[in-house]
Amino acid sequence: MRPMSIQQAAKAIGANTNAQGTFQEVSTDTRNLPKGCLFVARKGEHLDSHQFIASALEQGAAFALAQEEQYRADDRILYVKSTRQALLDLARCYRSQFDIKVVGVTGSVGKTTTKEMIAAVLSSKYKTLKNEGNLNTEVGLPMTLFRLTPEHQAAVVEMGMDSLGEIEDLTLCAQPDVGVITNVGVSHLEKLGSRENILRAKLEITRGLRNGSPLILCKDNDLLKTVEIPRLKVLFYGIEDQTADITAQHVQELGRETSFMIHYQGQWFPARIPCLGIHNIYDALAAFGVGISLGLSPAQAAQALADYVPAGMRQRVVEYKGMTFVEDCYNASPDSMEAALHTMEQMACNGRKIAVFSDMLELGDIAQESHRQVGLMAAQSGVDVLLAYGPLSKGYLQGAQEGGLAQALWFEDRDSLVRHLQEQLKPGDLVWFKASRGMQMERVIEQLRAHI
């Protein structure tokens, strides 16, 4: 972050102060408090960090931002109605100082992989900033923007949400030049009530787009293909629907990579990504669309996809004591479970194909049926063994048994699941671990590695 005056910050967030000076870092956590920073106190459901303001100033913070008036008489403390909104407003002000191209990415599933692929493509031409991990919230996105420097020429920011209005706040903060919506599924159905409301929430990304900006959408998604926004340049990509602006054909999965041909404006461009699964090709097509929208040639955008590196716990393939583990523990939904099973079906192995699944969260009224359907898909996909834990995961077994899968077991807790895996796994087995982030499936892998 380059230096920002406290007077400039006060103007951006609507605060009054007589303080003078500058800061060049922003922190919301006293455990990571650079000297001379602006400390932003946040008031959440479980924690109110206003209690740490005095400590933050004593530790070396130059200024603090609070929403509790008269918390303490100190010129270094700026007061606002909402520190949540002030953080977004401050980040917007800081972002506006840079003449760069910003890409906003959202969607029910695949947005982090798409963000990483976009960053790989843009990095072939531009110095590119991206969210680290899944810092895609009302705190994570502003903190990403504060990392902008004069060296950056582009930025890719992921936008997550739990309810209506959240993506609108993020897009108005980031002011993207290009918007991407990967799909509209059933994640967050519990809170939003319908897929139509999820579509409304995702389309909030357009509020921050200027007239004529590219909006890149998947035409194979039943809801996104209906989107018409005349003031924007809508660019569709797809695989099933070959009428889309950007399509893929001639898909080949070899080892741990996928090659395919991208069709755009009557021409074909070879592409390769270091991962498997049709869902990853969709993400690659979106990244290609961003590349050509921001000045890359089609050939350059397609070639740059090979530089993508899978992030975090997303379909990370690891060889371990003669077995193949696919660590896919970041998140789960019916769509991503189906994609995982399809990819697993295509992978070669010398032993058994074992699906280790736990609950898909935030599905509301469709949770029970969704788990049953995934279990049925597992039986039909050629999985040899299905192992599950978690209260909702009993639905997997119901579906698996209906589909005729003989080896399907449910465990009350992670420890019993791990013990079974320790006893049963053999060299040559392919084991795919997947669940919603809240189920902490990575702990199963950690325990397994420690004792197998």
Key structural traits:
15 helices
Q: What's this, in brief?
A:
The protein has helices spanning 6-13, 53-59, 83-95, 111-123, 140-145, 166-174, 189-192, 195-203, 278-293, 298-304, 334-346, 367-380, 394-402, 414-424, 442-451, and strands at residues 4-5, 22-23, 26-27, 38-40, 63-66, 77-79, 101-106, 128-130, 154-158, 178-181, 214-218, 233-238, 246-254, 257-264, 267-273, 316-320, 323-328, 353-358, 385-389, 408-411, 430-434.
Structural class by sheet pairing and helices: alpha/beta
Proportion in β-strands: 15-25%
Global outline: globular
Fraction of residues in H or I helices: 25-40%
Characterise the protein shown here.
Helices cover 33% and strands 22% of the residues. The chain is of the alpha/beta class and 452 residues long. Helix 4 (111-123) packs across helix 9 and helix 4 packs across helix 10. It is globular, with a radius of gyration of 24 Å.
